[in-house]
Amino acid sequence: MDGNGKETDLEIEAGAGAMIMANDYGRQQDREDNTSEPSSDHFVVVKESFLREPLLLKKNRMNNTSQLAIVGANVCPIESLDYEIIENDLFKQDWRARTKVEIFQYIVLKWALALLIGLSTGLVGFFNNLAVENIAGFKLLLTNSLMLKEKYYQAFAAYAGCNMILAVVAAILCAYIAPAAAGSGIPEVKAYLNGIDAHSILAPSTLFVKIFGSIFGVAAGFVVGKEGPMVHTGACIANLLGQGGSQKYRLTWKWLRFFKNDRDRRDLITCGAAAGVAAAFRAPVGGVLFALEEVASWWRSALLWRTFFTTAVVAVVLRSFMDLCRGGTCGLFGEGGLIMFDVNEANPAYSAPDLLAVVFLGVVGGIFGSLYNYLVDKVLRIYSIINERGPIFKILLVATISLLTSCCSFGLPWLSKCIPCPPNLGDQCPTVGRSGHNKSFQCPPNHYNDLASLFFNTNDDAIRNLFVAGTDKEFNLSTLVIFFIAIYFLGIITYGIAVPSGLFIPVILAGASYGRLAGTLLSPFTVLDVGLFSLLGAASFLGGTMRMTVSICVILLELTNNLLMLPLVMLVLLVSKTVADSFNKGVYDQIVKMKGLPYMEAHAEPYMRHLVASDVVSGPLITFYGIEKVGNIIHALKITGHHGFPVIDEPPVTAAPELFGLVLRSHLLVLLKRKNFTKQKAMTGSTIMRNFKARDFAKPGLGKGLKLEDLDISKEEMEMYVDLHPITNTSPYTVVETMSLAKAAVLFRELGLRHLLVVPKTQARPPIVGILTRHDFMPEHILGLYPHLDPHKQGKEQ
Amino acid sequence: MDGNGKETDLEIEAGAGAMIMANDYGRQQDREDNTSEPSSDHFVVVKESFLREPLLLKKNRMNNTSQLAIVGANVCPIESLDYEIIENDLFKQDWRARTKVEIFQYIVLKWALALLIGLSTGLVGFFNNLAVENIAGFKLLLTNSLMLKEKYYQAFAAYAGCNMILAVVAAILCAYIAPAAAGSGIPEVKAYLNGIDAHSILAPSTLFVKIFGSIFGVAAGFVVGKEGPMVHTGACIANLLGQGGSQKYRLTWKWLRFFKNDRDRRDLITCGAAAGVAAAFRAPVGGVLFALEEVASWWRSALLWRTFFTTAVVAVVLRSFMDLCRGGTCGLFGEGGLIMFDVNEANPAYSAPDLLAVVFLGVVGGIFGSLYNYLVDKVLRIYSIINERGPIFKILLVATISLLTSCCSFGLPWLSKCIPCPPNLGDQCPTVGRSGHNKSFQCPPNHYNDLASLFFNTNDDAIRNLFVAGTDKEFNLSTLVIFFIAIYFLGIITYGIAVPSGLFIPVILAGASYGRLAGTLLSPFTVLDVGLFSLLGAASFLGGTMRMTVSICVILLELTNNLLMLPLVMLVLLVSKTVADSFNKGVYDQIVKMKGLPYMEAHAEPYMRHLVASDVVSGPLITFYGIEKVGNIIHALKITGHHGFPVIDEPPVTAAPELFGLVLRSHLLVLLKRKNFTKQKAMTGSTIMRNFKARDFAKPGLGKGLKLEDLDISKEEMEMYVDLHPITNTSPYTVVETMSLAKAAVLFRELGLRHLLVVPKTQARPPIVGILTRHDFMPEHILGLYPHLDPHKQGKEQ
To answer: Where do the TM regions start and end (chains A, B) (predicted)?
Structure first.
C-alpha cells in the first residue's frame, strides 16, 4: 500500500458505474497487486491440500468478485441484522455514563414490553377467534337454514358466495396493501430471527393485513389455519411495540432508545412469536417451546424466562375473555372458539401390538408428511409464476381456489349416504346449531351425513369431531377416505395463494383423518381408540411436515389435556420425523430456501472444511483511513452497497499500518450529515464526541435510516477531512485468513455477526484481507466459486 | 525476538523450580523485553481510556502472572474441556478419508447410545424406587407393628436403628469409595456441561456409590430426594456408555472412537442428565426442559431431538416395569413407587382475590426460597470444615444428622393430638399398610395422628398427602406449622452431609407444607382448594431456590397430571423467582461457586468492557517453533501446567515470524512417546502422517491420558528435533489484543473454547501476545488484577 496516501481529485457523478477505477478502488487495486506474491503463496498451500485446478479457480474467483461488486450496488430488499455490540468510542462513553436509573429503566421496560406483547397478542388472538366464529357461524347458519328448506342451489350459492366475498376481500388486502402478509409467516419470522431483515416483513401494514386477512381467509372456509399468521402477528406486534408504534405517526418514546438495536429487537420478536403460538393454541408452554425449537436461532436462559412470562400473560388474557363470553354475550362464539380438543380419554392401556400399530402409523405418516412438503414446494413454484404477474392474477387465483374449496365442501357430502342417528344421542342428532358432530345436510330427520359433519364445519370443529373418543361408528370408512384425500390436496393447493394461511390446521386435519382411517383399518389388531389414533395421526403428519418434536408434543398435550398419552405421541413423532428426514427438509426450511432468504444453519457444511476464510471473501475491499477525505467516503458509499468498511491507521498516526476497526455505513451517514469536517487532516475525535450521543447512531428499522441522497455535501466539503475514529468499532471479531471456513462459519453464526474481518497471517501484508458476510457463507456462493466441492455433483462425476 | 534461535544446552532436573530462567523461559523473557516498547504504548492507551494508576497496576500484574505460573505447575484436579475442533493435518487427513460407512456408523451409534442411556437410566430409576420402597416399607412396617403393641421405646430403637445403619452404610460408601458422589450432583453435572471436568465426577465408582448411596440415604429417612442423584447417575451412565464401559476392565470398542472427544461426550451427558430427571419424576418432557434450562450450557436443535428420544425411552421402560409390578410381585413397591401426585382437581375456577392470594404466596415463597439458599450456603461452609478432617468425621456427621432426623420424625408427632377418623373413610382410617393418609401412631383405634401421617412416611408419600385435594380438615394448623419448620430446617442441615442427597424433595416438602399452611390461613379470602395451594406452595419454593421456570412448570404438570392449573403455576413461579432473584443466586449456581468450579456465565460481566484482551492474559507465554528441540518441549511441559502452546514458524521456513497454530500438551505427549525425531531441523511431517492416525490423538477421559512421566527420553534424544506441524491446530480462534474483554469472553463462551489466542495489533511485534483460558475470564482473576473495577468495592468507596 502506498503510505503517502495519493489523494487525487474526485468528481462525484450520478450512476458512478465508470467511477469504480477511481481513487478508492485504485487504492484497493494497488494493494491487490502488491499482495499478489503472498496471495499466490497461499494458493500453493491450498493446492497442496486438495485443489486440482488452482489457476482456473483463481480466474473464476476474480470474475465472481467483480460481479458481486455490481450486484452489491443494486438496491437490495434484504438486509442482514447485526447482533454484535458496536464498541466504538461513543458507545463506550455512553456505556460508562449509564446510570443505575437508566439500567433500572431498561429492565422495567423490558418486562413491561413483554407484558404488553402478551396482552396485545392475547387480545388479537381472542379477537381473531371471535370474528372467525361469528362470520363462519353466520355463513353456516344461513346455508343450513336454506338446506333445511331443501333449497339446495340457493344454499350452494349462499355458501360459495360468502366464501368468495371473504376470500376476495382477504386477497385484495394481501395483494394491494401488504404482499408480505401472504402465507404462513413462520418462515419469515424464522429468517428474521436468524438475522435476515426482509422488506416490510414486520411493518404495521403487514400486521393489519395479517390480522384481517387471516380472519377473512379462515372464515372463507379455506383449508388454512390461523396459527402461522398468529405467530407472524405476534412478531409484528412485538416489533411495533419495540419501536413505540409506527414511526410515521410519531409515537416513539424516549425510553425506547434502549431497544433501538438488533439484539433487543430479536428478543422482543422471539417473545412475540411465542405469544402468537400460545394465543393460537391456548398452549403457553407449547408456545415457548415452539419459539425455542423452530423459530429462534439464538437462545439464552434469560430469554426463556421472559418468553415464558409473555405466554403466561397470553394464557391469562385468553382465559379472562373466554370467561367474559361464557354468558353468551359474544354472539356465535362458544366454548369451542379457541381450539381445545378434549379427548377425555382415561388411562390408555396398550401392549406390544398397539405399539407396532403406532410405529406403522408413524412410518406412513412420515411418508405422507414428506410428500406434503414436496408437493407444497412444487405448487409454490407454480403459484409464484402466477402471483408475479400482478395483483389481479393473485386475486383470480384466490377466487379459483375458493370456488374449488366451496365445491368440495358442498359437493362431496352428497357422495355419503345418510346414517340413522344412534338412539343414545337423543336431541343432539342431527345437530341444530352451527357446530356439532352430526350435521343433517340433505338427510331426512333423525339421520345425519357424516361427511358433511367434517366438511360443512369450521376446521377447528372438524378436528374436534375427528379427535373425539368412543365414537368408532360415527364415520364410515369411505367418508374418511374421501375426506382425507380432499383435505390433503386442498391443503397443498391452498398454501401459497395471496391470503394469510397457516399450515398447522391443514396438516392436523389431514393427519387426524388419516389417523382415524388407519385406526379403523387397524382395529382388529389393536385396542386403542380411533379418537386416539386420530390424534396420533395428526402428530405423525405434524412430525412429517414440520419436523418439530418437543414443541409439537407439548402443544398436542396442551390441546388435548391428556398427559397419559405422552409416550405414544412421543413415539409416533420420533418415527415420523425420522422417516420424513430421510426424504427432504422441514416445510418451513424449504420455504425459507425457496424464498431465497440467506438462512445460516447452525452447523457448518462439510465442504467448508476444505476451504479457508480467504478463499471466499468477496471484493473489492474498500477501506478508509482513520482520518478520511469526505469525497472518498461519499464515493465509496455510492459505488458499493457494502455496510461495513475497515478503518486503517497509517503513519504518522501509528508506527506502521494497522487495522483500527470497522465503521458502518449507517454510522458514516449520520456522521457526514452533521458535517464535522476539517480542512486539514486532524484528530477531531473530542469534538465529535461532544457533538454526538450514542443514541444518534441507534439503528432505525429497515429502510428508515438516513440515505445517501439525504446528504447535501458541497464541492468544497468533498475536499475536507473527517475523523472516523470515534464511530469506528474498535473490537470487530476477526479471523486469520488461514482459518478453516467451517470454523469461521461457526464463529459467524454463533455470535450473530454481520461482518467478520479477515486479517492476514503474515506481517508483510496490509492489515486486512477482506470481510466475510452472510452472503459469503451461502452454499450458492461457495459452490459457485468451487463447483467441484458440490456434494451432488461429486456423486454424479464418480 | 531473536531470530537466530540461540539454543543453549539444557539439563533436565527433577523439581525444576530454578529452571524457569533457562532456555525457554529465557526466550520468553527476551521477547518480553523486546516488546516492552509497544507494551507500554499499549498501557498508555489503557490509561487514556480509564485507568488511574497504570504503573501500580503493571507491577501488580507482573507479580500475579509469576504466581500463576507456579500455581499452573501444580497438579490440578480440575481440567477444562475443549469443544473446539482441533483442525491439524492429521485431523484433516482422517476427515477426508472418512467413508460414508463410517459416517453411517457414527449416526447409528449416536442413536444407539441414546437408546442405551435411556434404557439404563430407566432401569436404574426403577431399581432405585423398588429398593427404596421395599427398604423403607420394611422399616415402617416393623416400627408400626411395635407401635401397635405400645412398645414405644423399642419402636423408636428399631426406627432410629434402621435409619442409623442405612445412613452409616451410605456414608461409608461415600466417604471411602467415592467422595464425589456426595450431594446432589446437579452442580457438578452443570459444571461439566459448562466445560469443567472435575476429578472423578463421572467415574464408575461415583456411579456405583451414587446409586446405592442414594437408595440407602433416602431409605434412611433423611430429608433428601433421589432426583439430583438420578441426574448425576444418568450423566455417569452416559459417560460410561460413551467410553464403552470402564477402561480398567477393557470393554472399550472400536466404533466408540468417534465419541472420544469432548463435544460428543457433552451431548451424551446432556442426554444422560435429561434421562435422569425423566426417570426421577416420570416426566419425559420435563426432563428435556430441565436439561435445557438448568444443566446444559450449549444447546442445539439436534440435541433437543436426541434428548427427547432418550427421555421417551425412559418413560417407556418405567411404564413397562410398573406394569410388571402391578400384580404385586415387587414386594412393597406399589402404584406410588414413582412419584405421581394425582391431584385430580377438576377445572379450578378462580377470580381476582384468588390471584392476589397466589401472588402473595409467590412473594413469601420467594423469600423463603432465597433464605433457604442462604442457609444452605452457610451450612455447607460449616460442613466442609468438618468433612475435610477425614472420612471418620464425615460418617460421624451423617450419624448425628440421622439421629436428629429420627428424633424429629418419631418425637414431633407426640405433640399432635389424636383426631377421630371421619366416618366417610371407613376402613381407610387409620391406615394399616406402610403408606396412606391417616397413620394411627400412638392413637387409640379409630383415631389418627395427622403429624405422623407426614413425618412417619416416605417423603414421596408425605408430599402426596399434602397435595391431595378436598381434604381441608385433614391437618391441623399446628401440625402444618410444626412440620413446615422441622422440614425446612432438616432439609437445610441435611444437604452437605456425605450422602447422595437431592434438593428437589426437601424443597417440595417444605413448599407443600408451607402452601397448605398458607391455604388454610387464606381460606377466608379464596375459594381455591388447600391441595392446590399446597402444589402452588411447592412451585413457589422451587422457583425461589432453583430459579427454573419452564422446566419446573412442566415437571409439576407432569407430576400432577392437571394442565388446567398451568396459569396459576406459571404465575407463582414468576413471582417467586423474581422476588428471590433480588436476594441471591440460584442454589445450584451458589454451590458451583462455593466448590470453586470456574463456571463461565453466558453473558460478560459489565466491568469486562473496561478491559481489553491483553490486559488479562496470564504468562509467561511459552511458544514452540514449528520444528522444535525435544529437550525444549520436555522442559516446557515440566515447568508449566499449560495445556496449549502456540507454534511459531520463523525464517527460513517462512519469510517472517508467523503464528502457525496451537499445539496441545496431550498431543505433544503422544508424539514424543513414539520418538519420530531427527538429528537436524527437518520437515518430517509426511513421516509423522504415515506413522500416526488421528485416533491416536483422541482425547481420553480425565487423568487417563499419557503423562510426562510415561516418556522415556534419553539425553541424546533431548538434543534432537521433532516436527510439530502435523499435530498443530492450524485454525485456532484468535482475537486481536485490543479486543474488548467482554467480547472476547462472549466468543470464548459461545464457542466452548479452552484456549483463545491473542494476536498483536501492530505488525512490528512477535506474532502472538498470549493465550486466554477459562481462568483468565474468572472474576477473581480479573478483579485481582484490577481491584478498582470491583462493583462491590466501588460501592463502598463512594
So the answer is: 111-131, 152-178, 198-224, 268-292, 298-317, 355-375, 395-415, 480-509, 521-542, 548-575
Give the pLDDT band of residue B99 (cuts 50, 70, 90): confident
Sign of the C-alpha dihedral, residues B666, B669, B674, B679? positive
Question: Closest partner residue to B312 among A563, A574, A657, by Cβ?
Answer: A574
- Is the Cβ pair B549, A304 closer than 8 Å? yes
Task: Identify which of A398-402, B87-91, B524-528 has the greatest average pLDDT.
Answer: A398-402
The stretch A74-86 carries a mean pLDDT of 72
At A107 the three-state DSSP class reads: helix
The verdict on a CB contact (< 8 Å) between B609 and A655 is no
Identify which of A345, A360, A231, A224 has the alpha carbon closest to the alpha carbon of residue A288: A231
Average pLDDT, chain B: 81
Determine contact: B95 vs chain A, CB below 8 A: yes
- Decide if pLDDT at A71 tops 70: no
- The alpha carbons of chain A give a radius of gyration, in whole angstroms, of 30
For β-strands A756-759 and A734-736, DSSP reports them as: parallel
Nearest to A746 among B740, B751, B761 (CB): B751
Q: Is the C-alpha dihedral spanning A415, A420, A422, A425 positive or negative?
A: positive
Question: How far from the centroid of its chain's Cα atoms is residue B389's Cα?
Answer: 24
- For β-strands A658-664 and A734-736, DSSP reports them as unpaired
Chain B residue with the nearest C-alpha to that of A288 = B550
- Give the model confidence (pLDDT) of A768-796 as tens digits: 889 999 989 998 889 989 988 887 765 44
Q: Is A747 on the interface with B (CB under 8 A)?
A: yes
A34 exposure class (CB count in 10 Å sphere: 0-12, 13-18, 19+): middle
Closest-approach residue (CA) in chain A for B551? A285
Mention every residue, 6+ apart, whose C-beta is less than 8 A from residue B185: B210, B228, B229, B231, B232, B233, B235, B500
In 3D, which of A610, A689, A622, A703 has the Cα closest to residue A25?
Answer: A622
- Spacing of C-alpha A516 from chain mean position: 32
Place of cell 515447568: B639
- How far apart CA A747 and CA A192 sit, in angstroms, is 19
Q: A654 and B762 in contact by Cβ < 8 A?
A: yes
Cis peptide before B422 (omega within 30 of 0): no
ipTM over 0.90: no
Contact of A728 with A661, CB cutoff 8 Å:
yes
**Cβ contact, residue pair A553, B577, below 8 Å:** no
State the Cα–Cα distance between residues B545 and A411, nearest whole angstrom: 61
pLDDT value at A171 more than 90: yes
A493, A222 Cβ separation under 8 angstroms: no
Q: Kindly state whether A104 is in contact with chain B, defined as any CB-CB distance less than 8 angstroms.
A: no
In terms of Cα–Cα distance, which of A209, A188, A197 is closest to A265? A197
Q: Is A664 helix (H, G, I), strand (E, B) or coil?
A: strand
**B290, B308, B741: best to mutate for the A interface, most A CBs within 10 A:** B308
A436 torsion bin: left (phi>0), alpha (psi -120 to 50), beta (else): left
Chain A, residues 300-319, CB within 8 A of chain B, namely 300-301, 304-305, 308-309, 312, 315-316, 319
d(CA A148, CA B110): 61
Asked if B559 and B550 touch (Cβ cutoff 8 Å), the reply is no
From B516, B571, B572, select the one nearest B341 (Cα to Cα): B516
Q: Which of B85, B563, B570 sits opposite A558 (nearest CB)?
A: B563
Report the C-alpha gap between B697 and B406 in whole angstroms. 54
Nine-digit cell string for B141: 412396617
User: What is the edge-to-edge ordering of all strands in the sheet holding B658-664?
Assistant: B624-625, B644-649, B658-664
Helix, strand, coil fractions of chain A, as percent rounded to 5: 65, 5, 30
Report whether A663 contacts A645 (CB < 8 A).
Answer: yes
Flag whether the pTM goes above 0.90. no
Q: Does A742 touch chain B (CB under 8 A)?
A: yes
